[in-house]
Amino acid sequence: MQLVVFFFFFFFFFFTSRSPVKLTGITLKPSLQHSGKDDIIVNSYSKISITRQLSFAFDDGLRATTETRTLLEIARDVREYQRVTIQVKILSLCFEKETLTRSNKKVMRKTYQVADKTSSMALSVWGDCLVEVGKWYELQNVSVRQFDTKPCISTTLQTAIKVLPDLGTCFQTNEHTITTIEGDIVDTEIKISHLCPKLHKMDSVNPTTLMNRCIKCDAFCKTTKIKSNLNGHVSIELNGVHKKILMDDGQLREVLNLPEKCRDSSDDLATRVLSHDRLRVQMMGRVLVKAEFVDIHESTAAYPGPSTAAYPGPSTAAYPGPSPAAFLGQSSEASPGPNATMEKNVSDAESEGLDFLFSEEK
Fold this sequence. Notes:
Largest sheet: 6 strands, antiparallel
Number of helices: 5
Oligomer: single chain
Shape: globular
Order of helices and strands: HEEEEEHEEEEEEEEEEEEHHEEH
Mean pLDDT: 76
Helix content: 10-25%
Number of domains: 3
Number of strands: 19
Structural class: mainly beta
């Protein structure tokens, strides 16, 4: 981290002062920005120094710019983390959720389906960047990413958004449609990590004590000020096949209705999940959009209708005529009450064609 700050400071100083510098101990790799060129990679062995003279004429007209590319060009030549400029129409909002970044900060992320005249792609918009469905935009300095082997676009801290006039019809696709599936809950695993008030990860935390020690801060902090982050999975059964649904902090808190200061243990959270019967999820490809529990309260045991035990009528021993099996009107099996309709409403979703959404448990 110190190395990154050091180089950033010097590069910023030399860039603003237009000073010539000499770099040694660097690595060259194929450019993510321009085909046929190389990027300079600075590492812990690199050195930077001021040079008094240049052996070539400095071209003051050169500026760091991002190439304008169509979505089809990006899909045909995917270079992850390449910075580009695109002109797209916002087709729809797929989902939005709070996401934990690599710096352990929670930021709102909205995922849209966007298109130009050549193709369609998913766009992740982070933080306060605002776009409206149905409008055309030019997005400068966005980053090319890949998710599930498919290219997508993400905004960055340097992204600039400009509203465009209507550019006409655009590419139409159903690639990012949302599919709903449902199945019986089989198992779950939920892990809890903790962050101190300065967002350092803490190895062990006792939620029952007044304070806990952060090694990186080299200080004790109040337990009530420690933040928790959840991640895990819930497995459901679809026609005899177990599917693992991965969930992050926001999704677990939403489905379990947990407050921000929840102090439940992993065992407590697992008990909450397994106390429910079924799970219904909405998926966009492999991305979980929404999850909710579906409970069958009116089971045969809870609402059996007229029971032969509660209302046996003539006993088969004393009166072997019409048995409970023959007298179906009094049988809980033949007359389950409203349970039959409930079972039909929550029957297993067709798994055919949905296997690509998940990986089978081994």
